[in-house]
Amino acid sequence: MSVHKSSPKVTIRQLMQMKTDGEKIAVLTAYDVSFATVLDEAGVDIVLVGDSLGMVMQGLDNTLPVSMDDMVYHSRCVANGLKRALLMVDMPFMSHISPEIALQNAGRLMKESGAQMVKLEGGSEQRDVVQALTSNGIPVCAHLGLQPQRVHKLGGYRVQGREEDVAERMHSEACVLEQAGADALLLECVPAALAAQITAAVSIPVIGIGAGSETDGQVLVLQDILGITPGRAPKFSQNFMQDAGSIQQAVQNYVSAIKNKTFPDKDHSFS
Ligand code: KIV
User: Fold this and answer.
1) CA dist., res. 207 & res. 96, Å (int)
2) Which of 11, 16, 82, 215 is most exposed, with minimal Cβ within 10 Å?
3) What is the pLDDT of residues 51-83, one digit of tens each?
């Protein structure tokens, strides 16, 4: 399956429609124009320039040192390769600590790098930031569950929401962020049942990573699906390169597996 070059651009309205229609949304990270082109032609719906670039592009231990300039640079490279996919870009650590700072930084991503949506980690304390951005025309994807920018506070990369009180808080934060204007929600490393509940409770599309099969879409890091993860690949990822003869085929197989609902299965999920 290769998407025709003249396919119209994916929009936020279309993502909403996909949720309504039950069509799964395929999301994958990219950090440069070559891979962005491959992903776009394979039918990836959203290309995410994640701050995971700190690890997979820069060889860092975590995402904290990633700067706004890094995000602008890589996003601009990726934007040059996209004809159809929507470009979502991460707000790096400390770039959205107040509505004013967030507006300046998200504005840069929209103006200088062609971002169509920004993603930011955080719960209900981000309500005013989300409101400020969305009311100024900047689409936002909120990010709940495991928030890698809080790795030191969390004491490691671990599943979030196993305890009842944490699960309840996550559920209510998802609703708060939706009410503040968030256009999408990403859930990372969340028990599948909780992710399914939150997906049903909100009307915005929910993208999961290590969050089971019931979310409206799935995202993985490109290096993980190509089997070139620096270090150990996470349990929730799958190497799509193993059975593919080319990178193009691996990405197409990833998209098909999401659309056909064969990925993720129980082995990639947390109970
Ligand atoms: O930074 C990133 O690539 C991400 C994904 C892992 C969801 O946030």
Assistant:
1) 21
2) 11
3) 999 999 999 999 999 999 999 999 999 999 999
The pLDDT assigned to 232 comes to 86
* Dist. CA 51 → ligand 1 center (Å): 6
Neighbours of 230 (CB within 10 A): 11
Given 41, 121, 178, 188, the catalytic residue: 188
pLDDT of 183 strictly over 60: yes
Closest ligand 1 atom, residue 52 Cα: 1
179 alpha carbon – ligand 1 mean position (Å) = 23
Q: Mutate which of 90, 96, 120, 147 to test ligand 1's pocket (most atoms within 8 Å of Cβ)?
A: 90
pLDDT in tens, 114-140: 999 999 999 999 999 999 999 999 999
CA–CA distance from 204 to each of 29, 195, 210 (Å)?
21, 13, 19
Pocket of ligand 1 from Cβ distances under 6 Å: 29, 48, 50-52, 90, 186, 188, 209, 219, 221
Number of H helices, E strands in the chain: 11, 8
137 CB-near residues (< 8 Å, 6+ apart): none
Residue ranges with strand state E in the chain: 25-29, 46-49, 86-90, 117-121, 140-145, 184-188, 206-209, 217-220
Peptide bond into 148 cis (omega under 30): no
At residue 6, does pLDDT exceed 70?
no
The reply to whether 188 belongs to the active site is yes
Atom of ligand 1 nearest to the CA of 48: 3
